[in-house]
Amino acid sequence: MKLTGFELRVIEMPLVSPFRTSFGVQTVREALLVRAVSDEAEGWGEGVAMNDPLYSSEYVEASVDVITRFLLPALAQVKDLNASGVAPALAKFKGHRMSKAAVELAILDAELRAAGVPLSRELGAVRDRVDCGVSVGIMDSIPELLDAVGGYLDEGYVRIKLKIEPGWDIDPVRAVRERFGDDVLLQVDANTAYHRGDARHLAKLDPFDLLLIEQPLDEEDLLGHAQLAKAITTPVCLDESIVSARAAADAIALGACSIVNIKPGRVGGYLEARRIHDVCVANDIPVWCGGMLETGIGRAANVALAALPGFTLPGDTSGSGRYYSRDITDPFVVENGTLRVPTGPGIGVTPDPDALEAVTVRTEWITF
Ligand code: SMG
Ligand code: MG
């Protein structure tokens, strides 16, 4: 396969409702799509960097910049480039994993489409449907939260994740348990909003039998997470801290987590994501697939990954309607609490040209 060029497309997708986390409120998902064009097929990748560097240091405009000025020029120098050669060729550039992941996925998708192989099969999937959880933002009031959670349970979601922050933690969890009972799979995500000194406070979540608490402390504070894990009974899960297979191995060895959230964008791509899955399986650490409010492009790939054997917990792989009134691909629809793993070649979905045009802010073409 000979790559001939890349299209970078910045899109803006309005969310069906504002999504509030400990780091901010989002009403629109701005994202970067990468289209890799070759002589045999074209492939799509989605960048998960957000508009502002609040979830992590990356952001959309930085992605466009680093891909244009550094990543694609470096890849253009590689002879017989294929998807597995992308990460090694880009390793000299520090960080920018979300940008690297978007480019790698576009090339991988083109390669798999040319070969007629579905991404799920390439990654080693063992399921044709995956269980869906949903991430519920911080609300203005408990009644509003209970309405939202009730709605998602009615839609069939099999696991609820509540976003928490200081001042919105014990009470909302208690209210959800009281209203919906102990059988609901329930977990919380702090997006780094707490500090080491909060251990005693976070131990107040212990009686609620949560599946996990996700990323309570700073992304660099592995030792703090290890100490916290000893002080509370809720299992600690890491998201932001796990940026590579090595980081996962270190966190596990330190006792900083007993569950891992895998987001391909955060770790530099689907191939590294699979390595993290393998490290976790070897250490008996359950994993689940995180989400970054992906469009159908990124969602298709996430669902393929979530079908691997070590993904034993429901992911933030919600239906398109959780985020967008109109997705850019055929919508992903939750049925019996599950999403279907695409079976077509590559990621198995293609954006609808009209839907794509309607959300496009700008495009750039880079000849390879
Ligand atoms: O895609 O369903 C989704 C979002 C899930 O909560 C979610 N993601 O830290 O796990 C996380 C957050 C990061 C994005 S928040 C805007
Ligand atoms: Mg998280």
Radius of gyration: 20 Å
Number of beta-strand segments = 13
SSE sequence, one letter per element: EEEHHHHEEHEHEHEHEHEHEHEHE
For the record, the count of structural domains works out to 2
Q: How far apart lie the N and C ends?
A: 13 Å
Mean pLDDT: 98
Report helical residue fraction. 25-40%
Q: What's the name of the CATH homologous superfamily of the largest domain?
A: Enolase-like C-terminal domain
At CATH level 2, the architecture of the largest domain is: Alpha-Beta Barrel
Please outline the major beta sheet. 7 strands, parallel
Q: For this structure, what is the CATH class of the largest domain?
A: Alpha Beta
List the total number of helices.
Answer: 12
Shape: globular
Which molecules are bound besides the chains? N-succinyl methionine, magnesium ion
For this structure, the CATH topology of the largest domain is TIM Barrel
Strand order of the largest sheet: 5-6-7-8-9-10-11
Structural class: alpha/beta
- Strand fraction equals 15-25%
Can you walk me through this structure?
The chain has 368 residues and is α/β, with parallel strands linked by helices. It has 2 domains: 3-116 and 350-367, 2-Layer Sandwich (Enolase-like, domain 1), CATH 3.30.390.10; 121-340, TIM Barrel, CATH 3.20.20.120. Helix content is 34%, strand content 22%. The protein contains 12 helices and 13 strands. The protein has helices spanning 60-76, 86-90, 97-115, 119-123, 142-155, 170-180, 199-202, 222-231, 245-254, 270-282, 296-306, 353-359, and strands at residues 3-21, 24-38, 42-47, 129-131, 133-136, 159-163, 185-189, 213-214, 236-238, 259-262, 287-289, 338-340, 360-367. A 7-stranded parallel sheet has the order 5-6-7-8-9-10-11. Helix 6 links the parallel strand 6 and strand 7. Helix 5 packs across helix 6. The longest helix has 19 residues, at 97-115. It is globular, with a radius of gyration of 20 Å. The two termini are 13 Å apart. The mean pLDDT is 98. The structure holds N-succinyl methionine (SMG) and magnesium ion (MG). The site of magnesium ion has 7 residues, from loops.
